[in-house]
Description:
By secondary structure, the chain is mainly α. The protein is 72% helix and 0% strand. It is built from 3 helices and no strands.
Amino acid sequence: RNMFNNIRKFLQFQLSVNCVAILVTLVGAIAIGDSPMSAVQLLLVNLIMDTLAALALATEKPDDSLLELKPHGRHERLLSNKMWKHMLGQAVYQVAVLMSLLFAGHLII
């Protein structure tokens, strides 16, 4: 149960971060005419995020409340509808912050 929850958290995090990175790069390339991040920078961000997420989830200790939950079925989805909603909300927030920094960063900083 703990591994299943950790895999779910890892997937949720990775999908959110990677979708935001792709969207920001795509919109930035279309609007500015040049990609805001190079391929090497994208790979570096992805490597750092993968490593930190894996370390954080691998070192998370099991909670006793997991023993009270019923076992997961063989065909249970890894990402529930609630998780998709959370990922969408987080992605919208991250895109809004990064777009404001991309287009109005010179005014803010």
